[in-house]
Amino acid sequence: MVSLESSIDQLYREPLAGFVPARTALAKTLKGDDAQRVKRLEKPTVVPWAVNQLYWHARPVYDRLLKSGAALRAAQIAALGGRTANVRGTAEGHRKAIADAVGEAVRLAVAGGVNASVDALSQTLEVLSLAATPTETPGRLTKPLRPAGFEALAGVTVKAPASIPSRPEPASEKKATAVKSSVPRLVEDPRARERKEAAERQKNEEIKKAEAVLARAQSAETAARDEWERRKRELDAAEKALERIR
C-alpha cells in the first residue's frame, strides 16, 4: 500500500498544471485529518516547481549543489573562526554547481511547458544550498527563497586579531581615545569589495550562460513544435486523400 507521504511526494513530481487536479483526486481518497492536510497543500509557483523537478528527476545535480554549498559554508565559518580555509576554491566550485543546477532546472522547466526566471532560480538554489538546515521538505518547495543575510552564520564566533603592545598613553590621550572609541565607525575592506565585485561578475557570466541554455532549449522546442505541426498537416492530407479514394 502506498503511504500518504509517498502520495504527497508524487504530487510535487507532477507537471505544474496537473498539481491541483491531482491534489483534489488524492484528497478524495482520504478521510479526516489526512484529507484536510492534502487539501491545504500549497501549489508551487514556477521557480520552486522547477527546483523540485531538479530534486526528483536530476538528483545527482541537486546533491552536488548541496554538497558544494555545505563545503562553502564550512569554509566561510572556518575562516571567520581564524582557521585556514580555501574559501576562494570552494566558492568557485559552488558557482559552477549553481550554474549546472540552473541549466538543468531550466531544461526541466521547458520540458514541463513552463519558463522559469534564471535569476530567481539562481537565487533560490544559492539560498537552498547554503542553508544550515532545510527550510522545507526536499522536493516540496512552494515559494522562491530569498537570501537571509548574516543569519546563516548565526552562532559563529569571529576570532579577533591579536593585539599589538603599545607604549602607555598619557591621561589626556586616554580620555580622547575613550571619546573617539564611543563613536562607531564603518570601514569598508577594499579586498572585500573586490571579492564582491568579482563574485558579481562571475554571477552575471553564469546568468548569461544559463540564459543561452534557455534560448537553445526554447529554440529546440519551437523547432520540434513546427515539425510536429508539419507532420500533422501531412497526416491530415493523407487521411483525406485516402477517404476520397475509398
Would you kindly provide a written description of the structure presented here, covering whatever features stand out?
There is one protein chain. The protein has about 250 residues and is mainly α. Among the domains are: about 35 residues, no CATH class; about 130 residues, no CATH class. The chain contains nine helices and no strands. Helix 4 packs across helix 5, helix 4 packs across helix 6 and helix 6 runs parallel beside helix 9. It is flat, with a radius of gyration of 27 Å. The protein starts with a helix and ends with a helix. About 10% of the residues have low confidence.
Label this structure with key terms.
single chain; 246 residues; mainly alpha; 9 helices
What is the strand and helix layout of this fold?
Layout (H helix, E strand, L loop, with lengths): L3 H10 L5 H10 L3 H8 L6 H12 L1 H22 L6 H25 L6 H13 L40 H11 L8 H56 L1
